[in-house]
Amino acid sequence: MKVLIVDDQKVNRTLPSALLRQAGCDVFELETGEEVLPFLNLHQVDAILLDISMPGISGTEVCRLLRRESRFDGVHVVAYTAHALLSERDEILAAGFNEMLLKPINRQRLYAALGLPAD
Question: What are phi and psi of 32, to 5 degrees?
Answer without folding.
Answer: -135, 155
